[in-house]
Structure formats: C-alpha cells, structure tokens
Predict the 3D structure of the following.
Amino acid sequence: MSMYAEVILDYYRHPRNYGKLNHPQIVSHDMNTSCGDEITMQVEVKDNMVADIRFSGKGCAISQAAASMLTEHVMGLSLGEVAKLNKETMLKLVPIDISPMRLKCALLGFKVLKLGVIKALDRGENHEN
C-alpha cells in the first residue's frame, strides 16, 4: 500500500475534528445519493473567521478522510477565504489520485462546507463575537 493511501486510511480511522459543536453559527448537510455518503459540517465563527469546525457523517474512506483534511485546512481562515476555495485546492489536500467515480466522494465535505459558508455570507451574517 502506498504511503499516500496510508494517510487516507489514517484520517479515516482517526478523523480530525470529528463530532459536533455546542453552538455552531453555520450548519450544513448533504449526501451523495449515488453511494450514500453523507456529511454535516458545523462551524463556530468569531470575527468572521473559522474559530472551530467539526464534521460528522458516514461513508467511504475518501469522503470521510477528505472532510477531515478540509477541516484542518480551513481552521483560522476567514469566511471569505473559505468561500473562494475551489475544487482544485480541495483535491490538492487529498494525497492520492482520485478517479472520476470517486470525485464526488472526495468533494462532498468541500461542497457541504462551501454551501454553508456562502449561505451565511449571503444572509449578511456578521460574526464579530
């Protein structure tokens, strides 16, 4: 098994930032209907920055590991920076080649987080606690 596949399995078996937050300002959920993977992202925002983030869900190793990697990447970023992330940035976080069949798996957490952040920004929520 390649070192990169081992990294994916480590994130899957020992996810970072897995769980729920007590008082998230952003909650977003979606699922991949083709395979049943699902992810919920919760974000606590302070001074318009990601102060804390957790994800929960179920699914394949790629979807869960990618969501975990994403939470580490966005911690401390502004909501505007998160909203500007693109799928290429997300795919660079995942250290393996993703086949077209697994692309939805790798991007599910990214889609969920980005939608939640964009909705919060569109509502004009100001998180300057």
Summary: The longest strand covers residues 49-58. DSSP finds five helices and three strands in the chain. The mean pLDDT is 93. The chain has one domain: 3-119.
